[in-house]
User: What shape does this take?
Amino acid sequence: MSPERLEHPELPGMVRATARESQAKARATRARRAATAEIADVDPVARVLVDVALAHLDRPFDYAVPATMADAAQPGVRVKVRFAGQDVDGYVVERAAESDHAGRLVPLRRVVSPEPVLSPQVAALSADLAERYAGTRSDVLRLAVPPRHATTEKEPSEPAPAGPPASALADAVAAWAPYPLSEAFLRHLASSGRPRGVWAAAPGEDWPRLLAHAAAATLAGGRGTLICVPDGKDADRVAAALTDVLGPGQHVVLRADVGPAARYRDFLAVARGARRVVVGTRAAAFAPVHDLGLVVVWDDGDDLHAEPRAPYPHTRETLLLRAEREGAAAIVGGFARTVEAAYLLRTGWAQELAPPRVLVRERVRVAVAGASDFDLERDAHARASRMPRQVHDAVRIGLADGPVLVQTPRAGYVLALACERCRTPARCAACAGPLALTGPGTPPGCRWCGTAAPGWACGECGHRGLRAPVLGDARTAEELGRAFPGARVVSSAGERVLAEVEGRPGIVVATPGAEPVAEGGYAVAVLLDTWLLLGRADLRTEEEALRRWSNAVGLVRPGGRALVVGDAAHPALQALVRWDHAGFAERETAERVAAHLPPASRMATLTGDPGAVDDAVTLLDLPPAADVLGPVEVDEQSRVVLRVPRAQGPALSRSLGELQRVRASRKLDPVRIQVDPPSL
Assistant: This one.
């Protein structure tokens, strides 16, 4: 006997056991392959949209459906397929009896889940958006379908309680009564019609409640509703109104900050038809609502509605495409009005839902500090001071009746410093960055490199005194606290944004977009430093400034007041004083039509390395009337702007889509393409 056998007497048994195990695995593998080789008898072809972000591969591919997967591999489910030598994710978009492919089809690897998460309507919408924004369907679907959560998927979705009360339509008509044409609009909603409106909300309006009533009227007609708002704070307000009007359990809130499990649970409730009323932020625009009857976008001018990821779709355009494709009604609402909404009215695509002038005058009075000779007699510096006497008077009057909102455009303490004598901007000696103050007891410091400059002296005149041309919310709150020592002062800005405040007297200092909702509304709103919002170099500067001011004034209770510190002759401030957003938007639209700017034209930007952008322009097959503007240097990159008349917008999108496919197939340097960018 060999020494090895004496040392390991158990070796033959182990070898036999290993051999039996290997044979069993081989038999199982052969059986599995045999089962896979057996193709389904009915609709043996699955058209799969593969999750590959390459433009030239943006189309469904045909795969064979194994008999073992015939029941599970239905349209809308997630699958794994073999593609380019590796396993990739995909969605089954269709089952077919035969394929155009002449060779043998590769079978599906496996069905990840039998849950249909991609509805036919959303699948078709993804194709429309990919073409509209010169992107790929896989990129759109990443925005539309949340990641899978296997444990949550095994849980059933609880059915919704009984529908809205029988008086839902009558209650909605009563709630919307101040707005002419609203009754006809709501009755069309309840009778499965598809009315389309641009809604101008009156100041002080409880707009979440009115949207909840519109959803109730739609649900009474047997159809679902999809409401998109800019942020989670607005979503919570609408959700509370829906609970009050429809009752608990009738809606879901789709937002990304609730966690993967909760988000997927709510998504499945919508996909399964257990909930037919949805409110959420921009990702909710793709919610697979069954029998969609109404889409709503609130405050469509907010930049949060613009998706920052490719292909950069806008919530408003996504919802309007859905309304057209699915035969749904549409509401584009807000306190202010964008030029895109005004263009919908100009073309007759929608009707106006606006309050009468009598109601607007009753709701709020807006004044500009120092606008009259009487104001100047009382305060000679009313037009030059940051917080003239009228501001203190307005705050004092407001504190006697409730909370006061003070809007200031900048967050921080003192954001910029200048020489007190010659007004030269104060710069850092180390990196030439701007100096600022972070608090009342801190020395000046650089906003770029953080270097402190306690002994700063002006390089022009040698003076050591500093002044603050730009103040932030913290310094504003400090000044108001000193002026009104008995008042409660809170700030809402930056990382500390308040959702709501109590209705008792106090001063709330907030930056634009961070204004909390006051219980019962604000007694007075004060808008400071309006010149800052009007000083941006952008196509939408005045429109955006008016929108931010209007949203602040819209939080004032009916019968309240608003005071604006700024140039009373500016058209945007005049529109705010008159609450004439329709006239302002029409003027802006007319100017843009004359200048061949959106929305009268379709624009696109190409951004990247200079050589890559130049190659892209050379490869483009542009429509006949296209204008090529640029290139210009932006943030160390080259950018070209393309412009065509609105009627040739689809042709421009197709041309850009073809460019994407050519560049992807040739593996050229990347170029970022944005169609109708929110800002130039």
